Amino acid sequence: MLVCHCIAHRFALACEEAAKGNMLAQYVECNMHSIINYFSHSSKRREHLACIQKALRVLTFVVLNLVATRWLSRGNALERIHVNLRPLYVMFKEDAEPPATVVTAVALVALFSSYKFILSATIFRDILSRLNIVSKCFQKDHVKYSDVREVIDAAKEGFKTEYLSKSDNGESML
Hints:
The chain is mainly alpha-helical. The protein folds into two domains: 15-132, no CATH class; 140-174. The chain is built from eight helices and two strands; from the N terminus they run H-H-H-H-H-H-H-H-E-E. The chain has helices at residues 7-20, 23-40, 43-55, 71-83, 85-96, 103-112, 115-138, 145-163, and strands at residues 165-166, 172-173. A hairpin with a 5-residue loop joins strand 1 and strand 2 (172-173). Helix 3 crosses helix 5 (85-96), helix 4 (71-83) packs across helix 7 and helix 7 packs antiparallel against helix 8. The chain starts with 6 loop residues before the first helix and ends with a strand.
């Protein structure tokens, strides 16, 4: 049996494979699931977040679900979390206070107070936003090689500029 994947699906598989052995990617994704699950079955919590967003004058966004097979959803979900870091922190802090102490909220306050989470989520948001642009290019009705090449080159150059520096002997390094 011969299976031929479309380029967008191949790209998603490549992203999945690249993230498999990356402990930091797994850390970010695991914590994204915790944040998303906090809201998944509670309209009260979603309404509470909307009130906090309004009070803080942040665009009202709902927290998006993660779809394991869609890398585009990871980037979009992480973007929403990143835009809402402050409202989410405020909400978790309120929910962690007595008398209605929510155990999950206590853990999420600790997470949102962690430099490791904030920094890794910010870096992965940047990486995934660039990968989402490439993914969207692959998903167009009429994909042109010249367009794809341009988008991939721009993503590669962005990664080089943002994350690689030159050593004393001129070699690229992280």
